[in-house]
Amino acid sequence: MAIGEFAWTVELALTPQEQAQGLSGRAELPPGAGMLFVYDTEGRRSFWMPDMHFPLDMVWINGDCRVVDITRDAPPQAPGQSLDDLPRYSVDNAQYILEINAGESATYGIIPGAPVKFNGSLSGAHGC
After folding, report:
1. Residue-wise burial string across 90-112, b where 16 or more C-beta atoms lie within 10 A, e elsewhere
2. In a domain, 63, yes or no
3. Cα distance between residue 53 and residue 47, in whole Å
């Protein structure tokens, strides 16, 4: 998938089970890789980061294939941090959420309103 001039190789999180697992428990995410969460409709989406081991940027995308918001540098769960103390990140009007390594959204100049395109095997399969 591409935002502007940069493309990421993404894994899909389509089912509720895949979406609940997300990137939790992984040691790292290779540069230029991400996870794309796909929902049937736009809505208020909330994410948190239990059992995460590295910080992320979350790129929130609407059904019109535009970036609506960006959560930058969401920290991983700290040692000993309870689930009740984990921050929740929520955005309205999101149908897709792209999780990428922290800092990549700034590096590649992603801003709200940027167009999103699903390419490769995603082309025509899930919108955008």
Report:
1. ebebbbbbbbbbbebbeebebee
2. yes
3. 15
User: pLDDT tens digits, residue range 43-65?
Assistant: 999 999 999 999 999 999 999 99
Ramachandran angles phi, psi of 81, nearest 5°: -75, 130
**Which residue range(s) make up the domain with 64?**
2-118
Long-range pairs for 122-126: beta carbons < 8 A, 24 or more residues apart: 122/1, 122/10, 122/12, 122/36, 126/12, 126/38, 126/96
The CATH number assigned to the domain holding 28 equals: 2.60.120.1140
* DSSP letter assigned to residue 126: S
What's the number of domains the chain is made of? 1
The answer to the question of residue 31 being in a domain is yes
Q: Report the pLDDT averaged over residues 8-19.
A: 96
Position 124 pLDDT exceeds 80: no
